[in-house]
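Section: Multi-chain targets

For targets with more than one molecule, the full set of components is provided together so that the structure can be written out for the assembly as a whole rather than chain by chain. Components appear in the order listed by the source. The example entry contains two components.
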Amino acid sequence: DIQLTQSPSTLSASLGDSVTITCRASQNINSWLAWYQQKPGKAPKLLMYKASSSESGVPSRFSGSGSGTEFTLTISSLQPDDFATYYCQQYSSASRTFGQGTKVEIK
Amino acid sequence: QVQMVQSGAEVKAPGASVKVSCKASGYTFTGHFIHWVRQAPGPGLEWMGWINPNTGVTNHAQKFQGRVTMTRDTSISTAYMELSSLRSDDTALYFCARVRTKDWALDAFDMWGQGTMITVSS
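Its structure, encoded as tokens over all components, is:
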């Protein structure tokens, strides 16, 4: 199975900061990567698909990049609603895997 | 609007089985693969498997081999996930999720159910 490793596990930041989360795949997944935001007790919300395409309605401060085995999610100018846990997910094969998550918390 | 509504929380004894339903509305049920994902208490999402609602073909993670069954009833636009031989470490919030692109398997999940809490306890 393809493994995804996210870093950091926790990220402390202030309102208005720009933050970047990294997701590394154990093998080439081309651009078949998605990013989700999850808040406690809620279902994940799709932010990005195909590594860099924004889902409809997602604010422009979210951006994704990368291909192959290394990917990033950047949030420019953190807003109060952005404090949450973020997961990457690969869908390059019939089996899917998620990264372990990155919690973005208020400094 | 597109919705996926799951069945309610359940408490099960170790060794029992549970069947979770996921009723879809607002789109063509047979056009989009449905996946199941679970989240044990704490962070972390675990992919369980998928069903093609059009054909009934399924695929699941190796760790659930022999314990998970995914089915669907197209007449009521509902997918089901049954997990048997429950253990305490199956205690989790179970989600169904829709693949975003019609008639295409390799895509992200754009719509999710609200989650069903399954507690395994004696």
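Residues 15 and 78 of chain A are 5 Å apart (CA to CA).
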